[in-house]
Amino acid sequence: MSMETTPGIREDLLRRFIESGERERLQEVLRSKLQASGWQDRIKDKCQKFVHENSNDLDKITVDDMAEEVTPFARSSVPEDIKAEIMEDIRAYIFRTLPEADV
């Protein structure tokens, strides 16, 4: 597979991933697993802590400020087993979807 075809293949895979409903299905699986693991509660607690720590400047805090503060924590605190499972599901989809000649 040449480097020239890689962007086209990626775009086609992404289009199929979305159109097939697989992206939506995996997003729902991810949401469910994160909720079951307590991850959502930890993120909510982190957001509440941020608001509490900045309570004197509430009128100056934006959603972007909170996202900037919480996003690194949120990403790093996703349980490794959940990351691995979702990545494996994505890999399996790619291998099912790619034409044999492109693998």
Give an account of the 3D structure.
The model has no long low-confidence stretch (mean pLDDT 89). This protein has a single domain, classed as Orthogonal Bundle (Serum Albumin, Chain A, Domain 1). It contains five helices and no strands. 75% of the residues lie in helices and 0% in strands. It is an all-alpha fold and 103 residues long. The N and C termini lie close together (8 Å). Helix 2 runs antiparallel to helix 5 and helix 3 packs antiparallel against helix 4. The chain has helices at 6-19, 22-37, 39-53, 63-76, 80-97. One of its GO terms (biological process) is transcription elongation by RNA polymerase II. Keywords: Activator, Chromatin regulator, Cytoplasm, mRNA transport, Nucleus, Protein transport, Transcription, Transcription regulation, Translocation, Transport. This is Transcription and mRNA export factor SUS1. It holds the Pfam family EnY2.
Structural category:
mainly alpha
Q: Spans with pLDDT under 50 lasting ≥5 residues?
A: none
Number of strands: 0
* Count of helical stretches: 5
What is the CATH topology?
Serum Albumin, Chain A, Domain 1
Number of domains: 1
Rg measurement, Å: 19 Å
Largest sheet: none
Q: Overall 3D geometry? A: elongated
Mean pLDDT: 89
The N- to C-terminal Cα distance equals 8 Å
